[in-house]
Amino acid sequence: MLDMKPFTYGLKLVTCYDEGVTFPAELLNKTAKDVYAAFAEGVGQVAALSLAVGFPTLPAFPHVVGGGFRKCLAVALATEYSFKQADAFKNRAAAGPAVVDTPKPVVQTKEPPKPAAPAAVSSSSSQEEFGDIFG
After folding, report:
1. Contacts of 88 (CB under 8 A, 6+ apart)
2. Rg (CA), the chain
3. Long-range CB contact pairs, 69-74, < 8 A, 24+
4. Three-class SS state of 24
5. Half-sphere exposure of 66 (CA within 13 A, CB side)
6. How far is CA 119 from CA 28, 77, 115, 122, in A?
7. Among 2, 49, 111, 129, which has the highest number of CB atoms less than 10 A from its own CB?
8. CB neighbours of 72 closer than 8 A, spacing ≥ 6?
9. Which secondary-structure segment (H or E) carries 19?
């Protein structure tokens, strides 16, 4: 017929329709990992919003419990009140900074390099370097 080669034809899927719902064709290429990441981001947004407005929700529950523990621990450290979970923190605070491993300072065995001689300053102006931009 026209003898045009190479010649291809086909359909390009743009939008899908399934049970009364239309959605873009890019959603067909999503993996379970992509869906999980989007869901986790949404749960994080719900937790942040509920913490900000003070409305308790299930995603915010671990943050609320952690905040409560920190407040109880602060009271226990500041007073004589104690409970089982606070004892480890109290013992560590009483021991002082000697318990914490601090990195040892590095001792230089070689003498430090001598500073290089300052470079000669050129006496050219900025117009000479970049050219005259006004004419």
Report:
1. none
2. 34
3. none
4. strand
5. 6
6. 62, 59, 12, 9
7. 49
8. 83, 86
9. none
- Containing 16, the helix (H) or strand (E) segment is strand 15-18
- Cβ proximity of 71 and 81 under 8 Å: no
Please report where in the chains the tokens 């942040």 appear, as a residue. Answer: 48
Q: Would you call the peptide bond into 6 cis, given omega within 30 degrees of 0 as the criterion?
A: yes
pLDDT beneath 70: ranges in the chain? 1-2, 7, 98-102, 108-135
Which ranges of 8-122 does DSSP label H, i.e. alpha helix?
32-53, 61-78, 84-95
Q: Which of 89, 61, 56 is nearest to 75 (CA)?
A: 89
Total residue count of the chain as it appears in this document: 135
Per residue in 65-78, pLDDT (tens digit) is 999 999 998 998 88
